[in-house]
Every structure is written in C-alpha cells, then in structure tokens.
Amino acid sequence: MSLATNKKTVSDSTNKTILVCGAGGFIGSHLCEHLKSLGHTVVGADLKYPLYKPHSIVDKFHQVDLRHWSAVNEIFTEGFDGKPFDEVYQLAADMGGAGYIFVGENDADIMHNSAKINLNILEVMHQHEVKKVFYSSSACMYPQENQTDPNNPDLAEATAYPANPDSDYGWEKLFSERLYQAYSRCHGIDVRIARFHNIFGPCGSWDNGKEKAPAALCRKVAKAQKEDTVDVWGPGNQTRSFLFINECVEGMLRMMESDCQEPLNLGSTRKVTINQLVEMIAKIAEKTIYINNVNGPVGVMGRTSDNNLIQEKIGWAPDENLEAGLEATYKWICWQIEQNQIDV
Q: The domain 213-239+272-298+332-343: what is its CATH number?
C-alpha cells in the first residue's frame, strides 16, 4: 500500500544508513518500506520479521532480542558493510491494545522488556558515537486525571507533569522519555521524541490479542452478518483520536528533519467515541450493526491529540481523514479473513 499523502513527503537527497529497531512491528515495517523508497540504506532489527511485509523492505534484517546488550552491540559494531549508522529509529517495545496493557497481568513484562531495550540502545549508541535517534513514546504517559472527560481531554505537551499515567505502560514510556533526554544532555545525542496517539492501518495486529480498537472493530464488523450485533468494550462514549499510518510515518520523518528536541504529540485532533467508530466502520462495510456495550478494558475516558506545539515547532500537522484510513484498514482485514479461510 502506498504511503502517499496529500502533502509532499519529506525527502533528503543524502543517502543515509538507518537502523530501525522494532522493524518487525506495524509502524516499524511501514517506516522501513518508506525509508527504502526514499533511497536510504535500511537495516532492521526485531525479534521477528514483519508478518505482512516482504523482507525486501530492508537491506538487512537482524532477527535478535534487543533486550540483550551483546546483540545490540553487535548490530552497531557491524553497521552496514562497515558503514556506521547515521540515524536510529527506536520503536521496539512490549505493547498492545487495551486488552494487553490495561489488564495488569502483563505489567512486569511491559516495563522490564521495554526499559531494557531502551537502556541497551542508548548506551550502545553512546559507545559507538551514533548521534541521532527517534524515540516512539505514547499518549499513555499523560496524567489520567486529564483524560476523565470524554469531551474535553487535556493532552497538551506541557500537561505531562505532575506525572500520573493510567498504566505501567505509560510509566515506562515516561521513564524512557527522561532517559533519552538525559543521554541528550549528558552525551550529546540528538533526540526526537513523538508521543503517538492510536496509530492504525493495514499490516498490523488484528486478531492476536494485541490489536487496537480500529483493527479489532474492523475485524468484528467484517465477520458480522449483513445485519448483526457486535460487542464493544466499555460504555461506548469514551473518546479517542486515531492517526492513519501514512500520516504517522510522514510526521516521524518531518520531526527527524526538524531541529526540535522537545517531545511532540503525533496524532489526530479529531476525536470520536468508540461507538461512533463502530458506526463509521459499519457504513464502510454497508452493514447494519447494533452495538452491545460490555464490560472490558477501557483505559481513560477521553484522549485526543493537541497539535498546537507540533504545528508551531515543525510547521506541519497530520491530515484528519479518518474515513479513508478506516476504509483501507477494513478492506485489508477483510482480505486477511478471506485468506485465512482459504488456508484452512
């Protein structure tokens, strides 16, 4: 699927050697594919290869456990054909949707695994004198009391402190933001930090327990009859904003080309309720879907991106075409369901 947007894609005429950690994941695999299309040399690293992307999206892939310092050090020692990395994108983390990060039973793994990965990558970067890194944080690091009103969440970057994230996943993200900023101050590493807000699109988790709301709801609607009922966790009036993967990748590249080292929100300002999201997907599917709101992990009641600072600092903010992104995601998930039925 093309990553073209309605804005000119950032491109640097210089061929860079770039390491993408978390290249096997949803955002990482899209990023690798796009960086490669721009002519850069791309090295990927992850526990697994991308499930829904060809191996050709990178020039080399290290299937390694980034929690091990020796594995990370070997990647940086090797570089690519002896060339050191010009930039690093660090997206590797233990994460998932509400059914993974808000149930409590995964908290120790989430905090331990992600923190260890970030500690390893930063220290090895410092030792190998690699000076530029993008870190993917999350809106989950914002104080939960700022997100109790579905209609008026307050997630401007300046509201991050006093800190009180709604989950241990959010606490780890906040810790890691501080970690990257400390390495920037103490070791001169040029850091970019984006606080992602619900990134979605094709080629991501949709049926493995780590899927997020758009993919999970697209799957439920796709599997429903022409007139049917689907279960939706929570009261349904909880609000979120959702950013299509194309715009996320565009924003990441624009942040890297900017000189802004402050953490910035990267998300959509258009908030919808979860029940409204189901209705939008049902319209795309041309189905009559009735909603059964049931108990389940919900997280905060209101969350949407505040894009004032990213507009001020880099002169750009994401496109808000949620319908187009949902249609692309829904069609891809329908295709996945059909393929799985054929394979059975």
A: 3.90.25.10
